[in-house]
Amino acid sequence: MGGSGCSISISMCILLVGVVLLLSAQVGSCSCYRRIFALGDSITDTGNFAFSSVPENPIKHLPFGMTYFHQPTGRISDGRVIIDFIAQALGLPLVPPSLPEQHSAQFPAGANFAAFGATALPKDYLKGKWGIDAVTYASLGVQMDCFKEVVHRIAPGGDVRRVLSESLIVLGEIGGNEYNFLFLKHDRPRETAYQLMPEVVGIISSTAQELIDMGAKTILIPGNFPIGCVPKYLDILGKFANPPDYDQFGCLSWFNDFSQRHNQALSNEINRLSAQHPGVKLIYADYYGAAMEVFKNPGRYGIRDPLVACCGGKDRHHTGQDCSQSAVMWGDPANFASWDGMHMTEKAYNGIADGVLHGPFANPPLLNSC
Fold this sequence. Notes:
The chain is globular and about 60 Å long. It is α/β, with parallel strands linked by helices. The protein has twelve helices and eight strands. A six-stranded mixed sheet has the order 2-1-3-4-5-8. Strands 6-7 form a two-stranded antiparallel ribbon.
């Protein structure tokens, strides 16, 4: 179930100013890591999908990027995403997408290999065994191929272990798209997701083991989000729900329970690996718990209704139209938790990152690992 090579083609004609912003340094409170390397999906992507050879896409235009960068950067949000807040807190530059300079840059502060639509398992495997049509080939295996190519190229004297021992590796969030494709695009029994879960968790675990074998000493591994609170889920799957199917916060209970089961299985694997490698810091990031704080106490974050999207359509959850220049902007993104019905706003990501950096939603809190 490995990757098929680092073979994503490059389009260098977009987002040039955005690259400059991505490379700009930010002053933070900790500098115990020399680099950050990140893998994952659209939650972590800082521009790889936008730089790939995809057709014209709304994420290359405003209102994406409107809040912090004031222009699109390839992030699927109005501004910064979780990895940006982590980099800033650690006193490092924002982590640049790897794709534009995959074969040439030295990446002195690290590189981001995450991509929109990425899956933990390979695309062909998902199609052949599970009938799941993934939208990109940027599976975790493909990202690892790209990562290894870069690390072996930039390591002084070929000392990969030294480079990785001085770096923070962010492994995810990844695997959520397997479930999204299954739940949102396929009329499949829910039990299928339970059957798929061990394979998703297994590939994340084996990737963490591979990183450890290469010399990584600190790996942050996030869990899945409370997908039952995602506006797109509420819109599409809520049509088949009854009042008892919702929890006190208006979220779909079964889907949140599924996310927690995935997270528990992942946490168990992290604990197993930690016991085998006492000299390695494996940090589980509880994105679920941190995100639920926003849904439980939206007013604390200045958010009116966390179950509606900021950019989208005119339906109940604002998900009837994809976010684009022609979509409805329902107000200041700072007043929303959801940006486009699937991804969160900078405001929400900031809250999640804070819980991971300072606690209590990481074990140990990331800043305590310095």
